[in-house]
Amino acid sequence: MVFLFLETDLSSHAFDQAIALEMQSDGSFAGHTSVAYANMVGPFGGISAAQMMNAVLLHPDRLGEPVSLTINFAAALAHGPFQVQARAARTNRSTQHWIIEVMQGGEAVLTGTAFTALRRETWSLDEEAMPKVAPPQQVPHGEGPVPAEWVKRYDMRPIAGAMPQVWDGGGDSSLTQLWVRDNPPRALDFASLTALADVFFPRVFVRRATLVPVGTVTMTVYFHADSAQLRNSGSSYLLAQARAQAFRNGYFDHTAQLWNGAGVLLATTHQVVYYKS
Amino acid sequence: MVFLFLETDLSSHAFDQAIALEMQSDGSFAGHTSVAYANMVGPFGGISAAQMMNAVLLHPDRLGEPVSLTINFAAALAHGPFQVQARAARTNRSTQHWIIEVMQGGEAVLTGTAFTALRRETWSLDEEAMPKVAPPQQVPHGEGPVPAEWVKRYDMRPIAGAMPQVWDGGGDSSLTQLWVRDNPPRALDFASLTALADVFFPRVFVRRATLVPVGTVTMTVYFHADSAQLRNSGSSYLLAQARAQAFRNGYFDHTAQLWNGAGVLLATTHQVVYYKS
Fold it and tell me: Could you tell me which CATH number the domain at A11-118+140-275 has?
């Protein structure tokens, strides 16, 4: 008889508890917001995105693995239960298109689409190389001035573009680079990578060193890695990089990349964030 | 009495004919694929995206202007009529979230979401500056080896990363920069900018100098410009730039920007493209 001692008991990780969904008789899923991943107003957007991704991952009709996911934050979730409706709008021979809605009190609070596919090995190449940075062991933990609960669920080690310590309006670039992983460590999968894609502090904070009300309105994640590449990443740190392209009349975008420690580009992601000023 | 002589008669432009939709009694729109914007298989993806954007733009329930649009190409449209269903899933005080589906023969061929908002003037800044390139008048028209009809609807002047003239597998970068506008010229608006966001030849052609079967599966457009900034762009050339970040096991992404001649970043856009090899 062989006993397997796992480094982490997945079933007890706060992330797994947070994304847990229960299938209902009508094919929808019941979920619940997580105190562990609470943000200033409503939950951390990344955990909502991961819950929606999980509805597709758990769906009995699913074909293949996630290639892209778009989530729109239509309203702040109230703390409590919600319902996820994931519908395969189109199923082809090796690809599938999903429409996802999260409902609370009969109203849509999140909308989204996902694309899943059976992938096969082809000529491959990473054009966006991982920047050369100090290894995570040499980068101290970041201390954010924002006391949001979800921030404690991540081990973040900022290399460039950390949260400003002085709010003097003095920034000159929105670039952020950080090492990041779940806290405590957890083996990477599509759901956790989805949440990690939203781990960046708002670019307007970094660029302007000014605290203004903000909120992500839409986020897209492109999964370059398949499940085997995610498994190979284990629970090691990812290098995450984000940069805004434009701040314009209430909305800014960012474009971001996540590499594993071996330099494999696992995901690229983009979002639009509302800001007030 | 004043007579207005317009430079271009919009109503007769092939683009306006292509995106024309007729509202049906059930609130959906009837459209038709356009021979003028035909691609190798099915229509040019940009024109399908513009048709979906137009359903939101024409919808009587619309609040505000487009800020983001995600379109998923679930199946090739057959030449003929189609139906667009655009539904406001959530309407807030100054923002709105749309779910869009294009149906043909009772099946979903395109899915998507859009976000519209009432914008107001705030502190603004373009972080992604327009690259310094020769003006459009000094750049000759590009000659593509792909005889797709839609290519004739655009005046494209490649600066870098044009379609390879020799398919020898010898590329070393996927970066493309080109000046582009409608042909004949047409005043820029949200629908035409949506189509222009899909004007790039597949990155795998540029990076590998190898012709392989390809097809966009998902595209997202972030509109930084409002309608006034689009109007100010008139019918002048846009500088369009695209670059892949990763090619991996059948799918590659690209990230792209479109500036007007004055250097204002009008839109950023991303897509995932299937490739065979």
Answer: 2.40.160.210
